[in-house]
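Progress against Task 2.4 (sequence-to-structure conversion) is shown through the following example record, which the project officer requested during the mid-term review.
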Amino acid sequence: MRIDADFVMETTLTIRQSAIISLVRSNGFASVDSLSDQFAVTTQTIRRDINRLSELGLLRRVHGGVEVPANRGNITYKARKILNLEAKNAIAHSVAEYIGDGATLAFSIGTTPEIVAEALETHEGLKVFTNNMNVAIAALRNTSSEVTIAGGRLRHGDLDVLGSSAEGFFRSYKFDIGIFGVAGVDSDGTLLDFNEDEAAARQAILANCRQSFLVLDHSKFGRLAHVRAGFLSDVTRIFCEETPPASILSIIEKSSAELVICKQEPPL
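Structure tokens generated for the chain above:
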């Protein structure tokens, strides 16, 4: 499959842009001048970075600098897809090693599950079930896979089907592995989401799979959302590219869940 270079440029973040996001999220604000000094580039370059990150909804441009967006809800699917992309790729390749040919897989919505589906392109005879069009299209790139999608009305943005039809769809099968992400993980190990229907669909997957894989990058630890979506101890394996904070790690160690730290490729 040929990938247009302009498309790649539009759908990836530079190492500097990713670092700017992390810095601003840690401190709440950063000035243009301080970012220019820290990254040894011109203020014009920093302003271009800030403009792009603001357009994606990842940060908010303000007079003299940039800050965390005021909206505490979820950001767009397009923006989430490129956020922490290296970490998500590492997670996806690690998950692929735990999946055998011929497996029956249930996928929730989410950018990390979609990237996991992309990483299964060379597996043979997979049966994939999902309520998300992005995951379905990614899985169909593997011509030996059989893909089944929930019926119903597609939601704009995330291109998913939610509600009773999605929950009933997942309850109709018994999956070898359920693969899903979450919006955030609270300090007590509670899995969090922004939408009740998204949480219910994931719970339906969890209740109908033999093994459950939670896939999430380190930014989800401590990220706030208001809908309960289960608990860390509910899952079989947790895939992350970094060791979680001490409080979370303690919870995992006391549970039956296995933590898999996924090695990232060093930047070129």
